[in-house]
From TrEMBL:
Residues where CTP binds: 99, 109, 147, 161, 165
Origin organism lineage: Bacteria, Bacillati, Chloroflexota, Anaerolineae, Anaerolineales
Keywords: Decarboxylase, Flavoprotein, FMN, Ligase, Lyase, Magnesium, Metal-binding, Multifunctional enzyme
Catalyses which reaction(s): (R)-4'-phosphopantothenate + L-cysteine + CTP = N-[(R)-4-phosphopantothenoyl]-L-cysteine + CMP + diphosphate + H(+); N-[(R)-4-phosphopantothenoyl]-L-cysteine + H(+) = (R)-4'-phosphopantetheine + CO2
Protein family per UniProt: In the C-terminal section; belongs to the PPC synthetase family.
Highest taxon, organism lineage: Bacteria
Name of the featured protein: Coenzyme A biosynthesis bifunctional protein CoaBC
Organism this protein belongs to: Flexilinea flocculi
Ranges for region Phosphopantothenate--cysteine ligase: 11-221
Listed EC numbers: 4.1.1.36, 6.3.2.5
């Protein structure tokens, strides 16, 4: 039935902001609560899918029935995805992956008494970029959706990322106003497609947006 339209499909959802270690007690991360990703995992379960939720520590309770995989860094998330994706039917990449990480992780806690301390950063792996390059080796993987959180030139920047990362759909998130986006329960977005089409999603609950995102998977199967 329509209610179970993802029955038998394995959907991998990523959520949360990656944590890039500085030393044993500190890390660099970004402003992501994980709420939208967890809501997507729930919506996929509701549509009958088998769901793997690859998430950083968020403090949110994982939806009942999903397989939760806890990761911290971008590198760890990438390794997990590369292992699991060949057996998946779709990827929804909602995680806020850090763009930079400390070049060296200090094995000991950096002491305040050491005074001024400079941390050199290096870029992390572009996980979706890597996946785009090896998609032909994963015939099961029918749909890859990504997110773009932009504070300006939303459509232009998100479209560029859609093309560069060879996505089937980009969810372009408007983070310019305080009622949507990070940490709150509501979101406003555009769905962008490779053929240039777009769909506007007005301000709505993250759970409702999650259902609309999951509904877009229908035509791939
Ligand atoms: O950070 P950015 O706006 O480029 O993220 C766009 C999309 O790419 C998101 O779906 C995010 O999860 C993904 N991403 C990634 N690897 C990165 C940075 C972002 O896969 N290093």
């Amino acid at each position: 039935s329509r209610d179970n339209y993802l029955k038998g499909k394995r959907i991998l959802v990523t959520a949360g902001g990656t944590q890039e270690a500085i030393d044993p007690v500190r890390f660099i991360t970004n402003r992501s609560s994980g709420k939208q990703g967890y809501a997507i995992a729930q919506a996929a379960l509701d549509a009958g899918a088998d769901v793997i939720l690859v998430t950083t520590p968020t403090g949110l309770e994982a939806p009942y029935g999903c397989e939760k995989v806890l990761v911290k860094s971008a590198e760890e998330m990438q390794n997990n995805l590369l292992d699991r994706l060949p057996d998946c039917d779709a990827l929804i990449m909602c995680a806020a992956v850090a763009d930079f990480r400390p070049k060296q992780i200090s094995q000991q806690k950096i002491k305040k008494s050491s005074g001024y301390h400079k941390i050199d950063l290096e870029p992390t792996e572009d996980i979706l970029g890597e996946i785009a390059g090896i998609r032909s080796s994963m015939p099961n993987l029918k749909a890859v959706f990504g997110f773009a959180a932009e504070s300006q030139d939303l459509i232009k920047n998100a479209s560029e990322k859609l093309n560069k990362k060879k996505l089937d759909m980009m969810i372009a998130n408007d983070i310019s106003s305080s009622d949507s986006g990070f940490e709150v329960d509501q979101n406003r977005a555009f769905f962008l497609f490779p053929d240039g089409n777009k769909k506007e999603m007005p301000l709505m609950e993250k759970s409702d947006l999650a259902e609309k995102i999951i509904a877009e998977l229908n035509r791939f199967f």
